[in-house]
Amino acid sequence: MKSTELDKIELLEIPKISDPDGRGNLSVVEKDLLPFVIKRVYYLYDVPSSSTRGGHAHKQLQQFLIALSGSFDVVLDNGTQRRTITLNRPDRGLLIPNGVWRELENFSSGAVCLSLVSAEYNEHDYIREYDEYLRFVGR
């Protein structure tokens, strides 16, 4: 299997509508922002700063992560290289293609991570052991 080039994984701008009267902002995920139909939505919160979440890859599922509040780091790994991206703005999200190992760490106090995904939960789509992941990507 060809590994995903981590330097091509980018943050996507989420349209932001600023209220002219200073009542805050509104961001919308709709239409063609994502290359998939959203099949499941979940969020992480109250994660201790010393904890790590994720620690897996997906065979098929694609994922879009947004820091609704606070910040956290997403460590991406394709079997040969690692890249860390900090999410800290609710008008930017990280599109993670299938076949990429991900770990979430360094959660700030009050951080909320929203996850929009391309499929309903399916345990068979997960690769939870890193050695198995390396075999999956041909390393």
Automatic annotation (TrEMBL):
- Which one Pfam family would you cite for this protein? FdtA
Family annotation (InterPro entries): QdtA_cupin_dom, RmlC-like_jellyroll, RmlC_Cupin_sf
Boundaries of each Sugar 3,4-ketoisomerase QdtA cupin domain copy? Answer: 8-137
> What is this protein identified as?
WxcM-like, C-terminal
Which species does the entry assign this protein to? Aequorivita viscosa
